[in-house]
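Teaching note: in complex prediction, the entire set of molecules is handled at once rather than each chain in isolation. The prompt given to students was simply: 'Predict the structure of this complex.' The entities are:
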Amino acid sequence: MPFPYHKINGQDIAHFRTIIGEERIVEKEAVKKEYHHDEMPEYGVYAPDLLIEAINKEEISQIMKYAYEKNIPVTVRGAGTGLAGGATCKYGGILLSVMKMNRILGVDMDNMTITTEPGALLSEVADAASAAGLFYPPDPGERTASIGGTVVTNAGGMRAVKYGVTRDYVRAIEAVLPDGEIVNFSSNVVKNTTGYDLKDLVIGSEGTLCILTQVTLKLIAKPKLTWSLVIPYDSIEHCISTVPKLLKMSFVPTAIEFTETDVLDMVEKHLNKRFPDRSSDAYLIVMLDANTKEEMEKMVEEAAGTAIGAGAKDVLISNTAERSASVWSVRAGTLEGLKADSLSQEECDVVVPRSKIAEYVLEAKKISKKHGIRIVTVGHAGDGNIHTELLKDPHLTEQEWKVNTHACLEELYAVSKRLGGQLSGEHGIGIGRLEHMRHFVGERMYRLFQSVKMVFDDKNILNPGKVVALDSKGRCGA
Amino acid sequence: MKIIVCIKQVPDSSDVAIDPESGTLIRMGQNAKTNPYDLYAIETALRIRDEVGGTVTALTMGPPQAEEMMRDAYMMGVDETVVMSDRKFAGSDVLATSYTLSQGIKMLEGADLIICGKQTTDGDTAQIGPAIAEHLDIPHVAWVKSLEEVNDRFIAVVHQMSGHVQVSEMPYPCLITVDKDIFVPRLPSYKTKLSTREKEVRFLSFADLPDKNLSRFGIIGSPTQVDKMFPPEAAEGQVHIEGNSVEKANRLVALLSEAKIL
Amino acid sequence: MNFIHFDVDKCSLCHVCIEKCPFDALHMGEKGIEVGEACRMCGICVKACPEGAIRFEQKAGQADKSQWSGILVFAEQEQGEIHPVTLELIGEARRLGGPKGYEVNVALIGGEGTAERAEMLKRYGVDKIYAYEHEALGSFKADSYTKVMADCITRMQPSVVLVGATALGRSLAPRLATRFHTGLTADCTKLEMRENTDLVQIRPAFGGNVMAQILSTESRPQFATVRHKVMDAPERSAVATGEVVFCEVAEEMVSSAIKVRSVHAAERSCGIEEEDVLVVAGRGVKDEKGMELVKALADVLGGQVCCTRALVEEGYGDPTRQIGLSGRTVKPKLIVTCGVSGSIQFASGMKNSECIVAIDADPEALIFNIAHYCINDDLYEVIPPLVERLKQKKEVCSHAFSLS
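The expected output is the structure of the full assembly:
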């Protein structure tokens, strides 16, 4: 029976020792606590029974063959920087770290690709690309994430406006299936109509379908100049309504973010990071890439004309590294500032059509008022991915906070759905969003999800209890 | 109040290296920008002007390309810009540069307040400000971290000393050098760019200056010479400290003392 | 003196400068005004001249090197305490001047108690200690300190003047070097003296990416500022060899346009980002006693306590002092990690620290990959003797100045 799972015993450990070196197997009590959770312990703290650090796909294959036969759950883990509770052992079993598989296998200049093992950090991959004079655009902010983790969560980040998300850069994946077989999803080709595109299914699957052991990523030419514009507005409505206009320009901005004065207050108060302009209530921050100064100046002209035409008070130009740092370090400190300003937080990362951002933000403000929970919206105005932070103020009891945030979340997700949005634009489902998933996508779609999971992982041993839930028999639907 | 801010155009990256073969400087960054520390000086000047009234003039010594930096200064809100540019100024060290700038300030009929950034990112000497004050025979305070009081008669500033902070007051004319983070420098404004498009950048050459004694300018007027440049020694490797706990503790203190970290 | 230059075309021989000179250094000579040995470079005459005929001037290429010998060290005092960089400068001056048999003299300027403190410097192998004591010199004023130092330099005519590259030193030295129309090299990390007394000055440039070697071959004195903790301080000698020279402080020297409103101890910045020394408690700290050890270490090092995320979760750490990805990014001069495993998330918040000391019981701890000094041991065993040793060292240092 697939459930309950087989509890790891001394015999199992002895077997793993024949496959893996002694020093790369850590038993339950000795496993460090950081392996019990990711960056959001709020979504669960679970102790693995065994931590194994693999160094190649053959080891992983052998581990999976045994785990499949014995019915032992296996959860793959990269750098542990997830924000949805994805890389935790919800049902115990093996935590399989791929962080020792961190070799970057090389940049292919002719194909403009980089091939790497999953444990290399995003920053290392980006640096290797840069050293070759090329550019790997996805930048979800968390640069110490493992590259494998960014692929299986389809990491986004603010540059998605111009460059798209991780999915748009994955050429080929080598992976181990739950039964231990090693397979390749696509290859280093630009087009592929060879059957179902399972590679795209694997991207963003949060480690529930297979274990990524190698990935080939597309690179592009590196832009020579990056400037940012800070655009002040007197009202959030004018601010947000500029976004679709900026997207209709003759070029695509790299990123469009928005922030409001109360957020800037919090960052200033708690982190002592001051924004270079505090004269206005709402701001758009627009990032532009270009190859020559002339090209950049033209882009600035067009963007400034568009913004001022749409009600902006001015357009402030950040054209050096220091100036950009003064802008972006405040933006990067937002989450920490919010955390410092409240006792507890809950987050939802919905994505809505870009034309609906203003409507969503205004609805969020109404929901905030209705339930007496402070809600702050910040984020990626350019791609409609809005980080909606619910903040606990001291006057709320634990019970009020719990009940009211739940009510807020339900309404926020409903608004997103009504506006044609999605439950999660970034970070994935993991455990954190699981309870809202079924209702959001609908029964038929949820069953499809479950069926896909079972096609890859019929015993439900790979990262069980994430993305789709187990039923009472330990099965995953179908 | 008349405020002069002394600024400098620097390479946009201090990411340089020495070619181990030829011993010459390899500059990575090709573009130029305003010395980042000078932006704090400009911001301080603009805030004082906005509070007390008056004008802000940006002054630099450098090649004609410094005009571009002055356009940026206009976009930040300064009222007037002056570039001192002449081949005769080439090769100036601190003494000659500060003298040239002090001559420029005299040409502009002086100022109530002169503000400099704490240092540049290419020279790192932090000497120009006090040297200008000496040439002009006016008092100065360096390393100003905040303003305590400014009015049309005097300025009182808070400045960092080794273990203390001191609050000093000076009448005008005087000079201050401001530390990083005194204020967050404002960004150049597109609207101001449009409104200052017609403003000219004034150029001064050697021939315009009151002192025509060539021996005080450029390389002839510079007592210091850069003899050579070379790459820094590579950092030392890792030290593993062995022994029992007491030995380790003692060894660590000895090593840290030797390395002058303690 | 070759610094005071009279423009004969402008001079009307009105005698105003002769009358105003507080040092009685100007005389009417056969060809006009002459400057005598008593000149202290105070600049009164320059300001007093109604014709604008007098200026300081020493053209590059004019100094007669034989007229300048010995090394003068500026001894910085702040609120009645001699800055420790002073001893390091004395040590360096002795090393540089030794082969030439150069005198090493010290200028000590300050308010009440300066003359007494001058006595403390006698046991470090210096020749003369010029002590300038005046109540108006109790706090730093760039203009009056420049006048006093100019007096001392004129008295001694040193080949080299060394000044600490402190906030005070870097405000004073450029002003002084300008007054003598000579070269100043900031933040030297290495000095050597050539046979012809030219000082070879090496300093980092371009943010430390490049080292520059700088010379002032034609002018004297040669000014250099040197940072604290770069040069070696000499041992304190049993016998006092130095002689204290009490120098008169003329009223003109202390007249200043600067008014010091107040001086107070620098406030500790609330954030850990600005600190020079940090001691980090990690999961190896199991209890309150462990936190006390870490605190004691931070105290003796003069730094602040920080923690890892793990310790915040254990309830011992303060979340506002958490280092790492979900906390602060720091770059102190010294960071000592105690019982920190060194996850990527932690390391990304501190790996650019100038010196990393890691203490951890696990030999495989990731922190040892980035640490400069590795101690593989239990923090409960190592910290107590470490604190003890550091206390001893501190006492020795504080005795250096207190025993005369």
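Point out the following to students. Residues 435 and 469 of chain A are 9 Å apart (CA to CA). The radius of gyration of chain A is 23 Å.
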